[in-house]
């Protein structure tokens, strides 16, 4: 194979490895943030469940205070009944006492409902606690793995990049410049093979003369469609289309 093409193919392979490692590195932080987000979401769910229990308990305490206040009113009205000698005033106080008692019954019904809500809310807290613990454990375990993977990839990338400079240095400046421009513009491959008479990059049919020139391996040949550098090996099917 044409020596320059061989050097460029080796360089291209190294660039692809570097691109792969960089791509894997780019995905690590989003993965880490996703895990943190899931854990934070589970913790938020637990906090919300706990807050719900506190809110219900606060309502129950308010109702208990209200019952206590009504009981005090009943005692007050009862004492006033003992002191009054007026029949109408006595009846009025009795009416107030009865209203307080009815109010207490209603409040007690509300307290029962709140007790049932508390029981359900505590079950939610238990379930949310389990989910939050599982999410936290997953986060801790996965982050450790991600951090180790990130460190290994960074080390691999540093080695690849250092070796890449060595590989690039052995390619003549003109050929390396053409290669670099193609890699920047095409983003995948700058040097491709010819098979069945088509370019291995854009897969467009190539002129016979271009294939013959490529087969001669005496100069760098570019695809007349995409501009990629073409190379030939004996195991390729170079049958050009009519």
Structure description:
It is rod-shaped, with a radius of gyration of 41 Å. It is mainly alpha-helical and 242 residues long. The relative contact order is 0.13. Helix content is 77%, strand content 5%. It has two domains: 167 residues, Helix Hairpins, CATH 1.10.287; 59 residues, no CATH class. It is built from four helices and four strands. A hairpin with a 6-residue loop joins strand 3 and strand 4.
Shape: rod-shaped
Major beta sheet, strand line-up:
2-1-4-3
Global structural class? mainly alpha
The structural domain count equals: 2
Measured as a percent range, the helix fraction is: over 70%
Report the top-level CATH class of the largest domain. Answer: Mainly Alpha
Mean pLDDT: 93
Question: What labels describe this entry?
Answer:
77% helix, mainly alpha, Helix Hairpins, 242 residues, 4 strands, four-stranded mixed sheet
Topology overview:
Elements: H1 3-83, H2 87-169, H3 173-186, E1 191-195, E2 198-199, H4 208-216, E3 221-222, E4 229-231
Parallel strand pairs: 1-4
Antiparallel strand pairs: 1-2, 3-4
């Amino acid at each position: 194979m044409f020596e320059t093409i061989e050097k460029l193919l080796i360089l291209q392979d190294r660039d692809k490895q570097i691109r792969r490692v960089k791509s894997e590195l780019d995905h690590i932080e989003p993965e880490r943030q996703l895990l943190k987000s899931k854990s934070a979401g589970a913790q938020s769910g637990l906090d919300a469940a706990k807050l719900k229990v506190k809110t219900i308990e606060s309502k129950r305490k308010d109702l208990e205070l209200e019952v206590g206040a009504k009981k005090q009113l009943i005692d007050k009205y009862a004492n006033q009944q003992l002191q009054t000698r007026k029949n109408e005033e006595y009846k009025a106080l009795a009416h107030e006492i009865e209203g307080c008692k009815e109010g207490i019954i209603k409040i007690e019904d509300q307290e029962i409902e709140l007790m049932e809500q508390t029981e359900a809310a505590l079950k939610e807290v238990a379930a949310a606690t389990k989910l939050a613990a599982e999410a936290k454990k997953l986060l801790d375990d996965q982050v450790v793995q991600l951090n180790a993977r990130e460190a290994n990839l960074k080390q691999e990338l540093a080695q690849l990049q250092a070796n890449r400079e060595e590989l690039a240095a052995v390619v003549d400046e003109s050929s390396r410049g053409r290669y670099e421009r193609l890699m920047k513009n095409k983003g995948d491959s700058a040097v491709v093979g010819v098979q069945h008479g088509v370019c291995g990059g854009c897969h467009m049919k190539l002129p016979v003369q271009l294939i013959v020139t490529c087969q001669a391996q005496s100069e760098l040949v570019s695809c007349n469609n995409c501009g990629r550098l073409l190379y030939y090996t004996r195991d390729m099917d170079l049958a050009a289309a009519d």
